[in-house]
Amino acid sequence: MSDPIKPVIVGATPAGARPDEDLLEGLNPQQREAVTYRGQALLIVAGAGSGKTSVLTRRIASLLRGREAWPSQILAITFTNKAAGEMRERVEQLVGDSARGMWISTFHSACVRILRREAEQFGFTKSFTIYDSGDSRALIKRLVKQHEADAYGLTPAAVQGKISKLKNELADAESYARTANLSDPAERLFVEIFGDYQRELQKANAFDFDDLIGQTVFLFRAFPHVADVYRRRFRHILVDEYQDTNHAQYALIHELTRPVVGAASEPYASGGMMIFEADQAPELEGASLTVVGDSDQSIYAFRGADIRNISEFERDFPGAKVVLLEQNYRSTQNILSAANAVIGHNFDRKDKKLWTDVGEGEKIVGFTGYSQHDEAQFVADEVETLRRGGLDYSQMAIFYRTNSQSRALEEILIRAAVPYKIMGGTKFYERAEIKDALAYLIAVANPADEMAMRRIINRPRRGIGDVTIETIARYAADEQITFRDALANATSLGVGPKIQTAITHLDAVLVEAAEIMLPASGEVAPPTSVADGLNVLLNKSGYRDALRASKDAQDEARLENLDELVAVAREFARNNPEGTLLDFLTEVSLVADADDLDDASGSVSLMTLHTAKGLEYDAVFLTGVEEDLIPHRISAGEPGGPQEERRLFYVGITRARKRLYLSLAMTRAQFGEVSVAMPSRFLQEIPVDLMHWRQSPGDVNSRGGTQSRALNARRGFSGGSGGGRYGDDLVPLPRREKPAGDLSQFANRIPAKVRDNGDMVLGPGDRIRHDDFGEGRVDAVTGEGAKRVAHVRFDSAGAKKLLIKIAPIEKL
DNA sequence: AAGCTTTTGATTTTT
DNA sequence: TCAAAAGCTT
């Protein structure tokens, strides 16, 4: 490598000894190659569980230890903050403090860092705010209404989706207009809305998530001397989960890895654009690029990820080296064989076979329930069995395709007193009260952001409705001032005295908070200023008072959430003593839920298959393995849909280390209707001998299913002859057109409503009757208050744990 | 402007 | 089913 800035360190490693010998310890030959290869471009095709994070972190460490790069010359990009945090931690373990100077971050936060520095180059200020999808939807909704576009079938959601898609392709309103069919009035309207949306963002000094990437690319292309600054700085770029990159992200990487042309030794010298002769030799060759990915795990095409970025890497970067990691260090061979078999049904992919040397392991367990509750009961029972066998709850996970499936699982888990935690789900920062509080902060940090102002102007209720808001907006437009500044002239707005007072008061509160959080230039705000300012805003605006006065029980929780946010601000100040209000807002906008993962200790994790990517568990329950669920019904119509669903299923399977359970239900209540479900086609793609069906779809079908599982729970092993051989002959699929009369037999045995046994007293020796499990004897009672759990040995259904308060039981 | 009732319609998700 | 959004009333 002709790296001109290669540092030479006195007293470096003695000649001959490899400085990175320990970094290669325990690595297989392919992994070693991935760590040590040096060249312009390297693609690491890393199958599931093949130790890619280890390879990536060691590669970085090896670059640093070999003095091939300064920390500041390394840019490592991941998709989530969690992944970035983990990577930083692991690099730190290898190289210590020097990890600090590196940029290890997500695409989005890397772009924010760049944009904050360069925003003034193109009409934004450093204090720009970031619109999340909710913010942009609100804005688009307003624009759709303004243009009366719903008459043409342009819903806010559709417009938002289309704009996002276009931005991921680096298109803007003008370039799209050139290709669009403008004789279609809906198209014309869309182009107008797109244009307006962009103008509104600019006016609000804001970027949406897609802009963070797209505008950075724009910046680099429009101002080559700016791009050169970053090209000089980042000499080694590493991208994780490359199969999930969209076109804009791809373009960003491309821009950053371009050679630096010309003699611009003073990058900002001329300010304008510099034209160079084409034949000029590059002053500095492009940065080295390492990407890691697995096209079989690409499950985000629906949000713009372009699988071609990885499949055509070698074409995009000629001379690229490709390293294939196929040895799996996570799962048993049975699990891997199932995964290989399933993914093998996808055509148009490079063949790749995961293998392991840990042995076959347990068979994959299959189970078919009569209803989703029945299925859930199986999962809960099995979780308990594993727990009794010594497996910690935190080593088990339950996956499902759609969030709505979690409900039935939760109901049963609560009853069975199994501690669980839902990953993903509603996010803290998406709660209304948190968004309100943040809008107050934004109103202070970026007064140009009208969205934030509109959000808070009537929260708490100040009697300001649409009419008044439009009056203010019109006044601001007439006077050529911002919405925020218009508030200072409440008397000139021509609104009622009551409203005038309210507006003046809000203005005063914002001013007071600004004095706390935004000190005069030259001064530095004390670290606590954000938390203090936030408290001022929440208290003096009357926001907290309104919640306290409310009789809605949820509002108490909202107050607690606000306290939590203040605590987050304090914590932020502790970790970033120099952190400003803007830094805090950036972190909060870009960081989803900080440490969801660590909280899961001692509980079973529930999550969607998408959320499961990148995680691993000893025991995995993949539930709802039914047609129309996985593959999801809607995916059938989309190009590449079924294949992506198969990859999703593959991702789910490969999360399991030792035990994998595939379960489904014969009937599923969806949208209030009970419908018959068919086993997923993916089940048939798993070789029969890898699976052991506790209850196969055939069993359930032949029996007609009037019994709830609870009554025949001990029947268990259906093996031997007959129904248990699902897969030999093609599955006896239940017919969809089954008469509705039959369905009632499957109706949920478990009522959706939670019953309350009040303070029923139970003790060891008591006999009880359970709606589903029949009679049994209490062995012991543990826990306290509402969480008392009875350990019951049922006469026919075996041992169960029951939450006394809500279990459908009576004392005999 | 705010509170009520009716209607609608419903993957997957990180930033 | 069930929550959110739209529509309607006061």
From TrEMBL:
E.C. no: 5.6.2.4
Keywords annotated in UniProt: ATP-binding, DNA-binding, Helicase, Hydrolase, Isomerase, Nucleotide-binding
Enzyme class at the top of the EC tree: isomerase
Any single Pfam family the record assigns to this protein: PcrA_UvrD_tudor
Gene3D superfamilies, per the entry: 1.10.10.160, P-loop containing nucleotide triphosphate hydrolases, PCRA, domain 4
Isomerase is among the record's keywords: yes
Domain UvrD-like helicase ATP-binding: 25-332
Domain UvrD-like helicase C-terminal, first and last residues per copy: 333-614
Residues that hold ATP according to the record: A46, G47, A48, G49, S50, G51, K52, T53
GO molecular function annotations of the record: helicase activity; hydrolase activity
Catalyses which reaction(s): ATP + H2O = ADP + phosphate + H(+); Couples ATP hydrolysis with the unwinding of duplex DNA by translocating in the 3'-5' direction
Family: Belongs to the helicase family. UvrD subfamily.
Family annotation (PANTHER family): ATP-DEPENDENT DNA HELICASE SRS2, UVRD / RECB / PCRA DNA HELICASE FAMILY MEMBER
UniProt-recorded name of the protein: DNA 3'-5' helicase
